Amino acid sequence: MAPLIVINVVGLTPRLLAHMPNVANAGAAATLRPVLPAVTCSMQATLLTGRMPRDHGIVGNGWYFRDLGEVLLWRQHNALIQGDQLWSAVPGLRTANVCWWYAMGAATDLLVTPRPIYHADGRKSPDCYTRPPSLHDDLEAALGPFPLFSYWGPNAGIASSEWIVAAARRILARERPDLLLVYVPHLDYDLQRYGPAGPEAIAAARAVDAALAPLLAEEAEVVVLSEYGITPASRPVDINRALRAAGLLEVYTQAGMEYLDPWTSRAFAVADHQVAHVYVRDPADLDRARAVVAELAGVDEVLDQAGKAKYGLDHERAGELVAVAEPDAWFTYYYWLSDDRAPDFARLVDIHRKPGYDPAELFMDPGDPFVKLRATAALARKKLGFRYAMRVVPLDPAPVRGSHGRLPDLPDDGPLIIGPFDRDSYEASEVRDLLAGLARRSR
Predict the structure, then answer these.
(1) Transmembrane residues, as ranges (predicted)?
(2) Do the Cβ atoms of 174 and 180 come closer than 8 Å?
(3) How far, in Å, CA of 42 to CA of 277, rounded?
């Protein structure tokens, strides 16, 4: 029987589908109602478990790990997802995962997931983790090295997607899995950078559609879905700076740079696009923290325990409060009050040290006339084997033009699912059983 291929096209919406004829021909399109927050890790966990964040525990792309005293984003261990996942729903299913998240340690037979190398001398190189290990050498020999999910350059993002599609097709041909999951990231970049309505978004949609054409043409049952839609947003909300000004957030200083101090802070926020988890150490400070956040321009809701329960977000990993931005706003992670006190990682692409998501990483600093020369010099040092720092990210978030995370106000701005379905809309929590039924049929 034909295998089941599930292609996750991040940022795909009904509006963009009009520019993607290959994807549109994959089947009937239905609205997909996401969970809050509508971000990658939370949505993928719901799609794979059929549960809400209150049950699977993935409350965002990252959160404050209270037992460690650290904010950690983009962890990769599958055990962070609580509950059975799609591949356990059909006994004996042979599965392959190409770049869906929380992949490491998952009970899949074949696996490719981003895993950069952090060299002992401080250099960083793009690479991936595979299972079985021999798959790494096979893919590299056939397709070249795994390309970093890159932000800059006219072809940077699509190069990643093209490699992923080629890897998926090679695995399909050589291994014949019953279920193949494929994650395609390209739309995420230009839609946040330029907004979802401009010519850049249309060009990105067409590029992804062309890249997917060979995979869509395989002899298989195909489902295309997305996690969220990106909507216009141009108002940054400095939630941590407000908490600091109110005396609730603490920092410590090293080498003249300020770092968030979660151990002593009475309240601080983990910013995640249009949602921010606010962690409040002492219940006596809840009302004060809520008032500070609620008074900020650009904040739509501040959810307490009852509010979190309403959205299925009442898990112990969530903040004591959860802030939701207005439709055209999003949350910064910034906590310093003067840019000359910003930590060195603020000017880098550094998704693991920043205590929150930073879409400014999508840009080379437009206020620096020498930024491209600096980047070129840094790349030259890297190629020569020297340590380097790509200090090119702006500290001004004004260029950002798109975001996501809140629930969509209009179906055309939200995610969708395309395949052999007969309804107009589905909840994200229904997808696991839909896919399990298709997988059984394809065996």
Answers:
(1) none
(2) no
(3) 13
